[in-house]
Write a structure and sequence with these properties.
By secondary structure, the protein is mainly α. About 80% of the residues lie in helices and about 0% in strands.
Length: about 200
């Protein structure tokens, strides 16, 4: 369960960083247009990359995994520190305000195609989900890495569903640069806190 909780917190820390897919989910949520389809595309895509990262990086022989365990922990700490510092730096210049586009909404097929493009054409999603989450997950022994993956999948579900379906209730808050600045600061605090915990454990 500790691995699942860590996966949940790490997944949330990574996924809420503003990106193309999050901006698109938020925009559709604000427009109340085909939100379920967009949320499903992004969530299922996250599941696929999380599983691929955990299974792919964890495909080495057990002896090699054991021999590299200490090095993996060091590498896990370093990405977390780097990501935390990057989030803190990004908070200095919050993203532009996000608002719902005016005009008629395109049909469901077009919305789904755009959601697929927003997700899979975002280069950062591969680094964050496959490489970073996969490496962190495989720092856990045995089934722990899959419990970690389960936690990150829950984080994806909560975030995309909350962002898409909850946007209508918090349109004013989520559409301001200040909101994303606060989120970046929370990301930085969480990632640095986990890195410190790993370093002192």
């Amino acid at each position: 369960m500790n691995a699942s909780l860590e996966g949940l917190l790490t997944g949330l820390s990574l996924i809420i960083a503003i990106g193309a897919q999050n901006a698109y989910v938020l925009r559709q949520g604000l427009r109340r247009s085909h939100v379920g389809a967009v949320v499903t595309v992004c969530t299922v895509s996250d599941y696929a990359l999380i599983i691929a990262g955990v299974a792919g990086i964890g495909g080495d022989r057990p002896a090699r995994r054991l021999g590299a365990a200490s090095g993996a922990l060091v590498r896990c700490r370093l990405p977390r520190v780097g990501y935390g510092l990057a989030s803190a730096w990004r908070a200095r210049r919050p993203a532009s305000s996000l608002s719902a586009a005016r005009g008629d909404s395109p049909g469901r097929p077009a919305v789904v195609r755009r959601a697929v493009g927003a997700y899979w054409l975002n280069p950062h999603v591969y680094l964050d989900t496959v490489v970073l989450l996969g490496s962190i997950a495989n720092a856990h022994a045995g089934a722990g890495r899959w419990w970690f993956a389960a936690g990150t999948c829950v984080a994806s579900t909560l975030w995309f569903a909350g962002l898409g379906f909850g946007a209508r209730y918090a349109a004013g808050l989520l559409a301001t640069p200040r909101a994303w600045q606060v989120l970046d600061l929370l990301i930085a605090a969480t990632m640095l806190g986990i890195a410190v915990k790993l370093a002192t454990s």
